[in-house]
Amino acid sequence: MARQEPRDGLERELERLDGAPYGRYRGLTGAWRLGTGRTLRLVRAQADPFAPPGRVALWIDGREAGFDPELWATPVRRRALAGYLVRCAAREARGERAYHLDAGGQEVLDRSSCTVGADGSVTLRLGVALPGPRRRIDGREAWRLLGPGLTRLADRALRAGALEAARVREFVETVEDAAALRAALPGLGLVGFVADGALLPRRSGADDRPARGAGVVPFRSPEELRVTVTLPNAGEVTGMGVPEGVTLIVGGGFHGKSTLLRALEAGVWDHVPGDGRERVAARADTVKLRAEDGRRVERVDLHAFVDHLPGGADTTDFSTDNASGSTSQAASLCEAVEAGARVLLIDEDTAATNLMIRDARMQALVAKEREPLTPLVDSVRSLHRDHGVSTVLVMGGSGDYLDVADRVIMMDAYRPTDATARAREVAAVPTGRRAEAESFPGVVHRRPDPASLDATAKGRTRIRSRGTDYLVFGEHEVDLRAVEQLTDGPQVTGVGLAVELLVRRGHLDGRRTLAQALDLLETDLAGPEGVAGLLSVHDEDFAVPRRYEVAAAVNRLRALRVLR
Q1: Could you give the CA distance from residue 512 to residue 518 in angstroms, rounded to a whole number?
Q2: CA 414 to CA 495: how far, in whole Å?
Q3: Phi, psi of 181, rounded to the nearest 5 degrees
């Protein structure tokens, strides 16, 4: 929060304004004292009672907050502590309809709604619907909300003395362990880890909490894949390690294949205690892919997967405003690798079948010179061997992937077994299929034109989310429905803010590649001013995004122009 000398007398000022026209709330913007070690900053007042809530920031200095310095000793611990405090504040504010707090869900993200400083100070940012019956200031009610109400909220939710120390520590240590586990995976030669005892199924598609009941099967690793990792707080933890290379997840329908993949998909995030996936981790550079009919593709080299199109289009420099399922998935794969992804997750249920496989019978019926598509099965090993990109695939309908798999995990009633040896026996029987490619040639790095990434509309910066599905960016609406690792609306807002930051700070300058600009962005967002850099143009709730979702938004912006 921007620091300035706070003023005294907010209660007196609200008494003086009682009954005044509603717009005079704007005269209160700035910082006000709320007792010892506390400052309330009115960031933005509402234009009228029916506008979105005003925005306030409540700052508490480190001595007043009183948390053990161990709890805020590192950036990961500060993020975790802030995640716990904002959830406490949201519970405390429940029932007060004027307060609007972004507490998040099962994931513990770096959110603007609550931050902990390197000095142990706490800043809570929230919306407050300022009272205004008949478009007149209600000074007494406004003081109740901004003074005693927020003071009580701070006393009960943001101070160490009011909270159960063991629960605070459990939350912080759970997040720290998850981050340490994720960071350890590359050194262990793994792309993912699922701890014994993890609960992977969710309650429903609309409820991300863990499923309950007698039918929920705790995860248990096959002996062949069991590894032990040592975490900072939990100590030694055993579970299934998913190795680098090409891994298939197979099994019958409804036996847990996609559930396991979704757990790995969510493993790029830390989770709250009790989520069931606290010790499920995927490498930080993991990206989920799917087909996406209708998306725009701008100057992507797709020739590894698409060639000699009937219309004669150049697939080494391919653009379309209406991609098919196969071309969209091919583009998303190339774009993900361009952005730095080193692990790809693919579920056959949401993939383009003709990009995934072309079996022997179809090869016999349709000659290769009449088929523009080269299936992934023929380049997936090269992705790892030549470019260090591993792939985890859910596959229940094509045995041809057994020929290229390094490891095969069989799911049977949500219980995994290592089926690699049996899969190799099956694959030893020839099918007559011929490989249609020898290698994956790599990706061509592109240079976005920063002038095409304009976040303004009618002269004002316009960035907001519509749930996890759409990002409003300037005059454009970006369709993000197929970007499945986005967690919530504030994170989508964070994606838009990060794109704006790429341009504003000159990281995208027409000379740098997208990957080079994303490297600079990551440095910015990981630094002490990470949240502050995004707050400088936006005072609504957001969560700090990964580079891969930022790249996905850039690539789906229909105004994007790429320089060569």
Answers
A1: 10
A2: 34
A3: -60, -45
Helix, strand, coil percent values for the chain (each to nearest 5): 35, 25, 40
Tell me how far apart the alpha carbons of residues 5 and 140 are, in angstroms, rounded to a whole number.
25
In angstroms, the CA 484 to CA 552 distance is 11
Non-local CB neighbours of 356 within 8 Å, separated by 6+ positions: 346, 348, 375, 376, 377, 398
Dist. CA 196–CA 1, nearest whole Å: 42
At 535, is the pLDDT very low, low, confident or very high (cuts 50, 70, 90)?
Answer: confident
Q: What is the pTM of this model?
A: 0.96
pLDDT of 3 strictly over 70: no
Instruction: Count Cβ atoms within 10 A of the Cβ of residue 166 and give its class: 0-12 exposed, 13-18 middle, 19 or more buried.
Output: exposed
SS3 234: coil
Closest-CA residue to 154 (of 23, 58, 28): 58
The confidence score (pLDDT) of residue 2 equals 46
- Residue 91 token pair: 């519970």
What is the rounded distance in angstroms from the CA atom of residue 217 to the CA atom of residue 425?
29
- SS3 category, 111: strand
Instruction: Kindly tell me the burial class for residue 363, based on how many C-beta atoms sit within 10 Å of its own C-beta (0-12, 13-18, 19 or more).
Output: middle
Tokens encoding 557: 């912006």
Measured between alpha carbons, how far is residue 563 from residues 335, 450, 558 in Å?
15, 10, 15
**CB contact at 8 A, 504 and 513:** no
What pLDDT sits at residue 1?
A: 45
In sign, the C-alpha dihedral spanning 61, 65, 70, 71 is negative
Q: What is the mean pLDDT of residues 213-229?
A: 96
Gap between the Cα atoms of 423 and 429, Å rounded: 10
Average pLDDT, the chain: 96
Report, as an integer, the average pLDDT of 220-241.
98
Query: CA-CA distances (angstroms) from residue 147 to 7, 12, 35, 63, 484?
Result: 14, 11, 10, 20, 41
Please classify residue 3 by burial: count the beta carbons closer than 10 Å to its beta carbon, then call 0-12 exposed, 13-18 middle and 19+ buried. Answer: exposed
- Residue 218 confidence (pLDDT): 97
β-partners of residue 271 are: 107
Pairing of strands 407-412, 246-251: parallel
What number is the average pLDDT over the span 454-479? 97
251 and 418 Cβ atoms separated by less than 8 Å:
no
